[in-house]
Amino acid sequence: MVERDNIIVDGAGYILQGLETMNGICLSERNNVTIRNMIIKSFENGIYINYSWNCKIIWNYMKNNMHAIRLGNSHNNTITENSVIENNAYSVILDNSSKNKIQGNNITKNNGVDLSNSSNNVISGNYIAYNWFGIYLPDSSNNNIITYNIIKANENWGIYVYSSNNINK
C-alpha cells in the first residue's frame, strides 16, 4: 500500500508478483501518485485505486491478474501507455469514478474495459482487441467520450452501452 501523496513509484522494470490474491499496489485516499515502469503479475487487482485523485498509471505491463487496474470512487486519474494482456477478468474497471483518462494502452486478451456508474471519462487512442468484449458502459455511465481507439476482434461486442446516455463516439 502506498501511504504518501505527491510521489512517484518507479518499478525500474522489475516484477511485482503475487499469489493471485490481494492487490499488487493499492492507493487509498491518495493524491498525485504516479505508478510507472513495472511488471505486475498474479494479483486479484494488479493496481487498485480507491478514493484517490490525480494519480497516473503509466508504462506498466500487467498480466495474469484477476483484474489489471481497478478504480473505485476515484477521479481525475490517468491510465496511459500500459500493456494490459491476458488478465483473467477485466483489464480496466472504473466503478463510480469520473473525469479519468484511459489513453494509449494495449488492452488485449482480457474481458475488456468496464465503466460501471462512471461518467465524464475519456477512452482514447487505445488498442482494444481479442477480449471478451471491448468497452462496457452499464448503469448510468453517462457523458463518456470514446474516440480514436482501435477496437477489433472482440468475442462478443466492441462497445456495449446499457442504461447510459450521451456517449460520444
Question: Secondary-structure map with pairings?
Answer:
Blueprint: E1 7-10, E2 15-17, E3 23-28, E4 33-36, E5 39-41, E6 45-50, E7 56-58, E8 61-63, E9 67-72, E10 78-80, E11 83-85, E12 92-95, E13 101-103, E14 106-108, E15 113-116, E16 122-124, E17 127-129, E18 135-137, E19 145-147, E20 150-152, E21 159-161
Parallel strand pairs: 1-4, 2-5, 3-6, 4-7, 5-8, 6-9, 7-10, 8-11, 9-12, 10-13, 11-14, 12-15, 13-16, 14-17, 15-18, 16-19, 17-20, 18-21
Question: Could you characterize the architecture of this molecule?
Answer:
- This protein is mostly beta strands and 169 residues long.
- The protein has one domain (7-161): Pectate Lyase C-like (3 Solenoid), CATH 2.160.20.
- Helices cover 0% and strands 45% of the residues.
- It is built from no helices and 21 strands.
- It has strands at residues 7-10, 15-17, 23-28, 33-36, 39-41, 45-50, 56-58, 61-63, 67-72, 78-80, 83-85, 92-95, 101-103, 106-108, 113-116, 122-124, 127-129, 135-137, 145-147, 150-152, 159-161.
- The strands form three sheets. A seven-stranded parallel β-sheet has the order 1-4-7-10-13-16-19, with no helix packed on it. The chain has a seven-stranded parallel β-sheet with strand order 2-5-8-11-14-17-20, with no helix packed on it.
- The radius of gyration is 14 Å and the shape is globular.
